[in-house]
Amino acid sequence: MTYWYEQYRASGDIIHFASFYGRAQWETVFVILPKRCNLTGKRLWLQWAERGTAIWTGPGDPVVEHKYHHPKYHLLWLITYEHTKF
Q1: Cα gap 15→7, rounded to integer Å
Q2: 3-state SS class at 86
Q3: What is the mean pLDDT of residues 59-77?
Q4: What is the predicted pLDDT for the residue at 33?
Q5: Where are the domains of the chain?
Q6: Cα–Cα distance, 67 to 22 (Å, whole number)
Q7: Residue pLDDT, tens place only, 20-55
Q8: Neighbours of 35 (CB within 10 A)
Q9: Under a CB-based contact definition with an 8 Å cutoff, are residues 82 and 75 in contact?
Q10: From CA 15, how far away is CA 5, in angstroms rounded?
């Protein structure tokens, strides 16, 4: 059984995205440069979108990761999956 936060590589291994969603902080931004919605794959351009930001720290420099959601699908995602904490 696969979950919404799993994606398969070509080798068949499962990649878990739950760690990003567990630590992301969300804000509403106006997207000027084209981005892809992480939930639907649709292009976001010259419109409002939800941007999730996760900061990964370790022995080297911190890495900032951003993922974008269309506002309508972000709301559905919040209602459906936000109650699940990782």
Answers
A1: 5
A2: coil
A3: 90
A4: 95
A5: 28-86
A6: 13
A7: 777 889 999 999 999 999 888 899 999 999 999 998
A8: 19
A9: no
A10: 8
Q: Per this entry, what is the length of the chain?
A: 86
Q: What residue type is 68 in one-letter code?
A: Y
- Structure tokens, 11: 């080798």
Residue with tokens 């993922």: 67
Q: What is the mean pLDDT of the chain?
A: 79
Q: Which residues contact 69 (CB under 8 A, 6 or more apart)?
A: 37, 38, 39, 49, 50, 51, 52, 77
Q: What is the pLDDT of residue 23?
A: 81
| Per-residue DSSP letter, 13 | P
pLDDT bin (cut points 50, 70, 90) of residue 57 is confident
